[in-house]
């Protein structure tokens, strides 16, 4: 489904543009956290992390502690990782496997379905007061093996939130074979939107990404805006090799790059079946936590082939080049020289993103 709110590419004047204070004002981020992040689907994990009964992992979603656990009944659930007794963070470990979850403060225990197992300091008549105490559930959905949560209990279902995106993703048949292989983080000294802007255009690629340009055919590079997401990509140049992989014979013939509202990017590079997710998580109005997660058929870096390691090296090189750009951009955002930029006709995906931000904050 095409995005119908973006002004035609031939028009050079837009009703409104994103002014630079949107990248530097802490009050803007406060509104974004309330009106955007607390109401949008956020990627937290992959089903390969919770395949067995009792397996769990914890996450932080916009300041909220979350636990995702596979119950002893094999059902996958998500809860706020908070004890209902005295609000203590329940599970400290990042991942593990348990039949019972226990709070370290007063010893309350909970079953893997979130129901109360035992409250040691409530006995006799007091016990009746806590019979209904349980972990508070979080809205969770799984599509294409990716686990998403939404802090809004009344959120639109995941599949309905992104048009035909998951239909597009399902065309990559190897995705069901992938596992969460590796995760790394990096602090970026820039507003979260700056990296999204960078990702949504490739005019800078010829200057900033020589290896990217050398590998992919930029003459066929296309960016398409869709409902709450965009897709961009191209094909591999003839006879190009990536590491030791002949890209003409590989299972992937071109790079495909998705952006999902508001802060998630999924990249699929040429070569062995792979996917990587990029999450831009605000720390403050000028600092962002970048979370990079790699998905291959193997579950650890040690098991990867040299071809797959070369692909990761390539991806990280491109990302490092982008980070340098957006950190320099953040310096300019604070300058009094200009208060807003200008849109090129090739930057329609940025226009889509900016319009969505402004519309959300106008709510």
UniProtKB/TrEMBL annotation:
<feature type="domain" description="Rieske">
    <location>
        <begin position="41"/>
        <end position="149"/>
    </location>
</feature>
<dbReference type="InterPro" id="IPR017941">
    <property type="entry name" value="Rieske_2Fe-2S"/>
</dbReference>
<dbReference type="InterPro" id="IPR001663">
    <property type="entry name" value="Rng_hydr_dOase-A"/>
</dbReference>
<dbReference type="InterPro" id="IPR036922">
    <property type="entry name" value="Rieske_2Fe-2S_sf"/>
</dbReference>
<keyword id="KW-0411">Iron-sulfur</keyword>
<dbReference type="InterPro" id="IPR015879">
    <property type="entry name" value="Ring_hydroxy_dOase_asu_C_dom"/>
</dbReference>
<protein>
    <submittedName>
        <fullName>Benzene 1,2-dioxygenase subunit alpha</fullName>
        <ecNumber>1.14.12.3</ecNumber>
    </submittedName>
</protein>
<keyword id="KW-0560">Oxidoreductase</keyword>
<keyword id="KW-0479">Metal-binding</keyword>
<keyword id="KW-0223">Dioxygenase</keyword>
<dbReference type="GO" id="GO:0005506">
    <property type="term" value="F:iron ion binding"/>
</dbReference>
<dbReference type="GO" id="GO:0004497">
    <property type="term" value="F:monooxygenase activity"/>
</dbReference>
<keyword id="KW-0001">2Fe-2S</keyword>
<dbReference type="GO" id="GO:0018619">
    <property type="term" value="F:benzene 1,2-dioxygenase activity"/>
</dbReference>
<dbReference type="Pfam" id="PF00848">
    <property type="entry name" value="Ring_hydroxyl_A"/>
</dbReference>
<dbReference type="Pfam" id="PF00355">
    <property type="entry name" value="Rieske"/>
</dbReference>
<keyword id="KW-0408">Iron</keyword>
<dbReference type="GO" id="GO:0051537">
    <property type="term" value="F:2 iron, 2 sulfur cluster binding"/>
</dbReference>
